[in-house]
């Protein structure tokens, strides 16, 4: 299967399409057992684990496995511990593996002294200089972020980023405002909402700590109420998706699966 850019994959896919984020330890069996077919899989990058030591690392192995199964891949890359020579090797390998989508982030616990790239903007410029327009490049977005972050994203799009993939959020109005701010700037790059389909309050609290996001007291109260009434918290996620579809004309959703693919499949089957 030919490589297709994310911006093309998400065009004209009706009122509901989806993609999955997986970590490199996702099992081949879980992928093979899926009865739903995401438009693409994003594969996370963990520089502090693999140290960018060579090309025989888990993210590249997982991305290669997915391509061998004719799946479209969005490869994460972080600035952390990234040297220009190593990045050149990774880009060449991605082209050889027919991977044309990259998600460029700074990296968790980024250490500037260990990197040739002081910002994601520098990495995007490097990728464009090396490979032209071969890659479709995504960057992170944060609904509810301050104006200076909006301007940073605008600059990244100007130098070569193609789409925005947001951190998970639970406030529809914050996402709508986020989109509207770019529209007013004349920026029409696709903005893909990230969705974390938590099932318990404990899972939500863990995600809040890990990703350092804020959630409303109303959401926490609703989760508590659902648990007390033995109602699945995924009902709240279904409502979030429905509100995004109706209020924000959003049709593609990126699920942070934490490799619980069967659970996400059940949720998607309910939405469809």
Strand composition percent: 15-25%
- How would you describe the shape? globular
Low-confidence stretches: none
CATH C-level name: Alpha Beta
**Spatial extent as radius of gyration:** 18 Å
Number of domains: 1
Order of helices and strands: HEHEHHEHEHEHEHEHHHEH
Total strands: 8
Number of helices, counting only DSSP H or I runs of 4 residues or more: 12
What's the average pLDDT? Answer: 91
In percent, how helical is the residue content?
40-55%
CATH architecture: Alpha-Beta Barrel
Structural class: alpha/beta
The major β-sheet equals: 8 strands, parallel, barrel
Sheet with most strands: strand arrangement: 1-2-3-4-5-6-7-8
Fill in the CATH topology: TIM Barrel
The rounded distance between the terminal residues' Cα atoms is 26 Å
Question: What keywords describe this structure?
Answer:
272 residues; alpha/beta; TIM Barrel; 12 helices; globular; eight-stranded parallel β-barrel
Structure description:
This protein is α/β, with parallel strands linked by helices. It has one domain: TIM Barrel, CATH 3.20.20.220. Helices cover 46% and strands 15% of the residues. An eight-stranded parallel β-barrel has the order 1-2-3-4-5-6-7-8. Helix 8 links the parallel strand 6 and strand 7. Helix 8 packs parallel to helix 11. Its cofactor is FAD.
Summarize the structure.
The chain has helices at 6-9, 28-33, 47-50, 58-68, 84-96, 120-131, 147-159, 172-184, 201-211, 217-228, 234-248, 261-271; strands at 17-22, 41-43, 73-78, 101-105, 136-141, 163-168, 191-195, 252-256. The protein has 272 residues and is α/β, with parallel strands linked by helices.
